[in-house]
Design brief:
Elements: H1 17-65, E1 68-69, E2 77-78, H2 82-88, H3 91-122, H4 129-141, H5 144-154, H6 161-168, H7 183-207, H8 212-220, H9 225-236, H10 238-253, H11 257-262, H12 274-283, H13 288-323, H14 326-335
Antiparallel strand pairs: 1-2
Length: 336
């Protein structure tokens, strides 16, 4: 006869002691992680609020402002792309763009070339080299406002030291910052006086990482100093050079404080750059929407410049990674 099946309530599932301990540790880790996350947010929330309040919100607000006719006092109105259309026909804005491009086109290559030359000269074991490096870098840490005040006295057309020196040399007095044909180039000289120091420091740091054995190998193979510089040093400095190009370009396109302290955009608009044009439209003529549109034209230019430099650097890295180190190939070619 078949056996009678056992019936009754199911037996409860039991968890092994080891599993209970693992689950307890897991819950403890989750509680600890939640506590650490809450503590971290408590510490960084002030910074997040500052970033949102001083960066993200103003960016969005100024973008909306660029599509409005607004003086920041009376209620504005939506005008769409009218501000941008007006910019394309504004001779003052075109002059500001020309001045900015001229300034950047001279400042960036000259500051890089001067910085590299000084860095190569100071990357040697000479007496008082630390003093020389400090003296080169000091102008960079001086604020642009202080530089403007200092050089306004030096280049004063009547009582400045520059015209006094020229007079002793038999040269007629110059207008400098008051001459429409000279003012922008005088500002460039002041900017280079301070801007070259940053390039020197960055290039000096990069020169310390140039492989000494590679330089020594090139010299043993018969390469002279110029060939070592061209085929070994410069290819090694390529990433740093790309960074400095982008940094100096942004610095040049955003110049404002030096112009504000020295020339106020004059004479005859010869030193009006884009950022000063934006400030003038927003806070002098109270056409804030128009100024915001000009600011976003500059922002797009900066974005395009940064993208171009980044793409070029990535292209060089891919080319170098695929074909080998260009400096090594160049050094080998010199040796042959």
């Amino acid at each position: 006869m078949p056996r009678a099946s056992r019936t009754g309530p199911p037996r409860p599932l039991t968890v092994a002691p080891a599993d209970r301990e693992a689950m307890a540790r897991h819950r403890a880790r989750r509680r600890r992680a939640r506590g650490e996350t809450a503590t971290a947010w408590a510490f960084i929330s002030p910074s997040v609020l500052v970033i949102l309040g001083l960066s993200v919100v103003p960016v969005i607000w100024s973008l909306l402002l660029s599509f409005r006719a607004d003086d920041l006092v009376t209620p504005g109105r939506w005008v769409g792309l009218d501000n941008y259309r007006a910019l394309s026909k504004d001779p003052g804005f075109r002059k500001a763009v020309e001045n900015t491009l001229t300034y950047a086109g001279i400042f960036v290559p000259v500051s890089l070339a001067g910085g590299l030359a000084l860095a190569l000269a100071l990357n040697r074991r000479i007496r008082f080299v630390g003093v020389y490096r400090t003296l080169v870098f000091i102008p960079f840490v001086v604020s642009a406002a202080a530089q403007g005040v200092l050089f306004s006295f030096i280049f004063d057309p009547q009582f400045g030291a520059a015209n006094s020196v020229l007079h002793k040399l038999g040269v007629s007095p110059q207008g400098f910052l008051t001459d429409p044909g000279q003012s922008l180039y005088v500002l460039l000289m002041i900017s280079l006086w301070s801007g070259v120091g940053f390039c020197v420091v960055v290039f000096l740091a990069a020169l310390q990482d140039v492989p000494a054995e590679l330089v020594e190998s090139a010299r043993l193979d018969g390469a002279n100093r110029l060939q070592v510089l061209r085929y070994v040093t410069l290819p090694t400095l390529a990433p740093v050079t790309a960074f400095l190009v982008l940094w100096q370009l942004i610095t040049a396109l955003q110049v404002f404080d030096l112009v504000y302290v020295t020339t106020k955009g004059g004479p005859l608009g010869s030193t009006t750059v884009i950022v000063y044009f934006v400030w003038e439209q927003a806070f002098r003529t109270f056409t804030a929407g128009y100024g915001a549109a000009a600011a976003y034209v500059l922002a797009v230019a900066l974005l395009l410049a940064g993208t171009a430099v980044t793409l070029y650097r990535r292209h060089r890295e891919r080319t170098t990674g695929a074909a080998g180190t260009p400096g090594l190939r160049g050094a080998e070619g010199v040796a042959r």
